[in-house]
Prior knowledge:
Layout: H1 4-23, H2 33-52, H3 56-81, H4 85-122, H5 127-160, H6 177-191
Helix pairs in contact: 1-2, 2-3, 2-5, 3-4, 4-5
Amino acid sequence: YITPDVWWYYMIELSFYWALMVSQFTDVKRRDFAQMFVHHCATIMLMSFSWACNLTRVGTLVLIVHDVADIFLESAKMAKYAGKLNLCNILFAVFTIVWIISRLGIFPFKIIYSCALEAPTLYPTFPAYYIFNILLLCLMCLHIFWTYWIVQGAYKTIAKGHMEKDVRSSSEEEITEDDEVDEDEKKKMKRN
């Protein structure tokens, strides 16, 4: 039996990931474009498998573990856009800690461990079970990849005292509105 709150959680998250996957092709290209595409595909497949195979308990756990860090990342971005750089730095630091705990701690050592090693002792396995676990491991590999970029961004933030642009930006040639503002500020500083 699926409760209404789980149904809505799944439908909203599934819609969100489909929208991200489609909009990725029209958004600013990042260095991790391919990894992000794989992430969206794996997430959609995981959600579909967990829904179809009645594995919604683990599905909701995976979603929560992934969503908890995103709250702080999006808050840090909003603080940066609002010009609150100290708050941005604090939120980015919290994001980094929560990311590492949730995605490199809880996800592999609780969720993947339970799905891959404990579940077969309790329930009979079936073909989709193996695909499900492979997709979980795929997400784990992506977490390790992105942790490198996050730690690099955190290091640069500490070294420079403020958050720079997204470290995933693919080239210096792409100039966003934020970059134009930064260039204007640099020119003003040179004049003074």
